[in-house]
Amino acid sequence: MTAESAEDVPLADHPDVNPTRGQWYDRSLAYLEDEVADHREALVADVDGQVLDLGCGTGTAFEQFPEEAEVHALDPERDYLAWATTKTDGVHLAAGQAESLPYSADTFDAVVCSQVLCSVDDVPTALDEIARVLCSDGRLHFLEHVHSDGVAGHVESVLTPLWKRVADGCRLNRDTLSRIEASPLTVTDVERLSLGRVPPTTHIRGAARQVDD
Questions:
Q1: Which of 184, 67, 69 lies closest to 131, judged by CA?
Q2: Domains in the chain, start-ordered, CATH in brackets?
Q3: pLDDT tens across 62-103, in order?
Q4: pLDDT in tens, 119-140
Q5: Which H, E and C letters describe the chain, residue by residue?
């Protein structure tokens, strides 16, 4: 399946979806959005060509992509995607899992993951899939929260079982950077960020590229 043929999702007024879940999601994560918005804007500032917004949720990042980018967006939650349709008329939306991307190999010039890999069940498989759909000179752009050091990290580990249940599978104590480094991609730059005082506080922002054969 190519980027052009991935199935679009129902509109927000479709009887089989509940877009109010997306509205609630936006309200519940407003505190985090205030912390990460500027960093995500910097993350996507130079993407162009065919771009995949992986785990797009309710489409919070749509307005931050450059106009020259042809943006495709994927998320497993159809209710969130239905709400995302109210925020764009130019992004190609599709429902699917990160571990089994519904796109052909060598499709995208860039894949963007913003607050996504914390909730993916099988991160190595998802990273293999990202590498598969990236073009030979494509890049993964990531902004992810990670396990903090010290007391904050201990608090995150204690909170994670409950947090995972109420926050769509999000793991506060995941060491995402080590998983990216162990993937078929090569990390080219990474910055560690401390954002706010409410979990999740520690983030990484960076990029990884395809490894040349």
A1: 184
A2: 20-210 (3.40.50.150)
A3: 999 999 999 999 999 888 898 888 888 789 999 999 999 999
A4: 999 999 999 999 999 999 999 9
A5: CCCCCCCCCCCCCCCCCCCHHHHHHHHHCHHHHHHHHHHHHHHCCCCCEEEEEECCCCCCCHHHCCCCEEEEEEECCHHHHHHHHHHCCCCEEEECECCECCCCCCCEEEEEEECCCCCCCCHHHHHHHHHHHEEEEEEEEEEEECCCCHHHHHHHHHHHHHHHHHCCCCCCCCCHHHHHHCCCEEEEEEEEEECCCCCCCEEEEEEEEECCC
Residue 4 phi/psi, 5-degree rounding, is -75, -25
Distance between CA 110 and CA 107 in Å, rounded?
A: 9
The answer to whether 6 and 107 have CB atoms below 8 angstroms apart is no
Pairing of strands 202-210, 134-145: antiparallel
pTM of the full structure: 0.88
Rounded Cα distance, 114 and 53, in Å: 8
Q: How far apart are CA 71 and CA 79, in angstroms?
A: 20
Instruction: Say how far apart CA 101 and CA 50 lie, in whole Å.
Output: 15
Give the distance from CA 138 to its chain's centroid.
16
The angle, 0 to 180 degrees and rounded to 10, between the axes of the packed helices 30-43 and 20-28 is: 90
For 159, other C-beta atoms within 10 Å of its C-beta total 15
